[in-house]
Amino acid sequence: MKEMGGLNMKLRKGGLMFDDIKEELMKQMPIKYSKIVPLKKPLESIHDMHSLGCWTAIDLFLFSKEHQHDTPALFLLPFDRQLVNDRFKQFLTHGEKADLIIDEDKSSRYGALHIICEFTTTVSKDMMIPIIQGMLTDMSSPYYSFVSETWVVKQKTPYDRELDGMPSDHPDRKEKLIICTSDPTQNIMTMKDIEDNKLSGGGDYQTTKADVSVGRFSNLFKGNKEHTRH
């Protein structure tokens, strides 16, 4: 009986440990706010998507600085309501009931889902990758944009994190507002300098093929065999 009691105690401890881990993971869930903004017409190209991403990024940056807090990360996913699957429809229904998402105009066929995130750890960043990959499939989104403030170190030689340390700790670091837009074939990235909490300069612009990574959240279509372009 003692052994059985001891086993039960271990199981209870194990259960508590699992609950603690689950609670900690929920604390690290980075999604803070989701909203669907209607679009008058579909975005016809990745360049249209990138343009929307850039204007949205500037608005988000200015709003954040006006209210004296850091600019949060943002995922921007366009969609056509006639192409979303049942799983996304259920997400909308349950999300609205739980006050997790705001759908401004359900009568609008086209829209863009804005997902505001606050990343606190590497785990919180890793959690978003399968979530966005799943949404790209469920929404049949042909492209998406990711917006974030970040530290960048410009070097002639490739950056070695083990030798050079984290970019945020590097003496030559520069703060940037980045907008990265991807479709299954390519990435477009714009970086604007941040100086004294203000955007400065015209911004660096680059395009790469889909298999060239330009960040953790670039081209999340890769490896997503369910996704098809419409």
- Please summarize the sheet with the most strands: 8 strands, mixed
Overall geometric form: globular
* C-alpha termini separation: 64 Å
What would you report as the Rg, rounded to the nearest angstrom? Answer: 21 Å
In DSSP terms, counting alpha (H) and pi (I) runs of 4 or more, how many helices? 5
Q: SSE order, as H and E?
A: HEHEHEEHEHEEE
Structure description:
- With 230 residues, the chain is an alpha+beta fold.
- It has one domain.
- Helices cover 35% and strands 30% of the residues.
- The chain is built from 5 helices and 8 strands.
- The chain has helices spanning 2-27, 46-66, 86-97, 122-139, 161-164, and strands at 31-39, 73-80, 102-103, 110-117, 144-152, 174-183, 186-195, 198-209.
- An 8-stranded mixed sheet has the order 3-1-4-2-5-6-7-8, sandwiched between helices.
- A hairpin with a 2-residue loop joins strand 7 and strand 8 (198-209).
- Residues 1-13 and 225-230 have low confidence and may be disordered.
Nutshell version of this structure?
With 230 residues, the protein is of the alpha+beta class. It has helices at 2-27, 46-66, 86-97, 122-139, 161-164, and strands at 31-39, 73-80, 102-103, 110-117, 144-152, 174-183, 186-195, 198-209. The protein has one domain.
Write a concise keyword list for the protein shown above.
230 residues; 8 strands; disordered C terminus; alpha+beta; disordered N terminus; globular
Fold topology:
Layout: H1 2-27, E1 31-39, H2 46-66, E2 73-80, H3 86-97, E3 102-103, E4 110-117, H4 122-139, E5 144-152, H5 161-164, E6 174-183, E7 186-195, E8 198-209
Parallel strand pairs: 1-3
Antiparallel strand pairs: 1-4, 2-4, 2-5, 5-6, 6-7, 7-8
